[in-house]
Amino acid sequence: MSKRELKKYLSELKKDAVEEQLLDLYSRFPVVKEYYDFIFNPKEDKLLQEAKTKISNEYFPVKRRKPKARRSVAQKYIKYFIKLGVEPHIIADVMVFNLEIAQAFAKDRNVPDAFFKSMLNSFEQAVQYVALNGLLFDFKERILSIYQETQDQDWLFGEGFSRVLDSID
Fold first, then answer.
1. How many CA atoms lie within 13 Å of 28's alpha carbon, on the beta-carbon side?
2. Is 134 within 8 Å of 89 (Cβ atoms)?
3. How far apart are the C-alpha atoms of 100 and 56, rounded to whole Å?
4. What domain of life (predicted)?
5. What CA–CA distance (Å, rounded) separates 137 from 59?
6. pLDDT in tens, 29-69
7. What is the gyration radius of the CA atoms in the chain, in angstroms?
8. Of residues 138, 160, 54, the one with CA closest to residue 92
C-alpha cells in the first residue's frame, strides 16, 4: 500500500476507528510502542548514558576479561537514535565518544588493521554528521583532539583522517 492510498483510507475512517487502529498498533508492535514512549517522554540523557556505557563496555569490559571492540555496537545506537528522532547534538556526542573510547583502547594495544579502517569510517561519518547539522562549533575541539591523537599514535590511514579533516575547513 502506498502512502497516498493509506492517506485516503485513513481520511475515510471515523476518528474512533483511527484511534482504535493506533492503539492496536501500539499494543501489537514493540517498535510503535517504543516510538510513542519516546515521543511523549523523551529521556534523552538516560539513552545517552546507556549508549555510552555499552560502548565503553565494548572496549573496557566490566564483567568479562577480553574486550570485543566492535564498532557495530555504537553504529546500532546511532541508527536507533536517528530513527527515534533524538536531538542531533546527542547523536554527534555518541559518534565522537565512540572514537574517543576507541583511541583510549588502541593506545597500548596491538589492534588489527581493520580496526583503523573502521575508525576512519566512524571519523568520516561523525565529521560529516557534525558539519551537516551545524554542530561544528560545539564539536570542533573534540574532533581536532581525535585527529591529533591519530597522529600521535601513528594510526594507519593517517592521510584518510587528514583528508576528512580538510573537508570541513
1. 6
2. no
3. 10
4. Bacteria
5. 28
6. 998 898 888 888 888 999 999 999 999 999 999 988 899 99
7. 20
8. 138
135 CB contacts (<8 Å, ≥6 apart)?
Answer: 88, 89, 92, 129
Cα–Cα dist 139/155, whole Å: 21
Say which residue the cell 497516498 belongs to.
4
Closest C-alpha to 73, from 105, 41, 45: 105
Q: Give SS3 for 36.
A: helix
The pTM for the full model equals: 0.85
In the block, cell 569510517 appears at 121
Amino acid at 154: D
Identity at 108, one-letter amino acid code: D
Which residues does 151 contact at the CB level (< 8 Å), separation at least 6?
Answer: 158, 161
Q: What is the pLDDT of residues 123-143, one digit of tens each?
A: 999 999 999 999 999 999 999
Long-range contacts of 32-38, Cβ-Cβ distance < 8 Å, separation of 24 or more: 34/84, 35/84, 38/84, 38/85
d(CA 54, CA 27): 28
